[in-house]
Amino acid sequence: MSRQEKSRWEILQQEQRLIEEKNKRKKALLAKAIAERSKRTQAETVKLKRIQKELQALDDMVSADIGILRNRIDQASLDYSYARKRYDKAESEYVAAKLDLQHKTEIKEHLTEHLCTIIQQNELRKARKLEELMQQLEVEADEENLELEIEVERMLQQQEAEAGRQASQSHNRAGTAKENSAPTVTTKESEHANHAVASPALSEQLVLSENSGTKSLSNVDNQTQAVNVTPGDSPACSDT
């Protein structure tokens, strides 16, 4: 074999060995990559399984919560239906009661007005009858004295009520403060004292009015039997 052919053969061998070495290294790298990929795949598989397990646990927990909430919602729906029925019934009863109250109030006001009208008409009939009677008996009524008597009587009633209230208060204070040794005034004495102090002029006017009224009434009583009143003129109802 010539030197030239030998050199070429050696070059080919060197190239072959270089290619083989490269292939060997590539195979090693590929095997390493496959091994790493397989290891990573296993780790990912384990991780994926763990994630799936956690998701399943979350689903189970949510399912339990959803079941509890659904039961509560069903119970709340029943309670709402019952409360709604009660509300509708109460509302209808309230409306009916309000209308009934309004109707009864109108009836009461109408009857009260009718009663006041009857009493007023009765008093007017009595006043006319008394006026006719006094004209027949030739008795003159002093309107000013009558009004004065009524006013004096009303004021005396107010003073008596005020004196009674003050006497009651003083009696209560005397009961709670027993150490006070001053003699207490009785209710009647305080009333007479209040009357004497508060209205001496009114008392004099009352005496004068009573005297004049007594004279007029005595004249009426002496002559009443001479007058006949027809049954048809009696009042429809009497006031209490």
UniProtKB/TrEMBL annotation:
Region named Disordered: 157-240
Any GO CC annotation of this UniProt entry: Golgi apparatus
Principal location: cytoplasm
GO terms under biological process: non-motile cilium assembly
Record's compositionally biased regions (Polar residues): 157-187, 206-228
The keyword Transmembrane belongs to this UniProt entry's keyword annotation: no
Places the protein is found: Cytoplasm; Golgi apparatus
Listed transmembrane segments: none
InterPro entries given in the database record: GORAB (IPR007033)
A Pfam family: Transcrip_act
UniProt keywords, alphabetically: Coiled coil, Cytoplasm, Golgi apparatus
Keyword Cytoplasm: yes
Family affiliation: Belongs to the GORAB family.
Full protein name: RAB6-interacting golgin
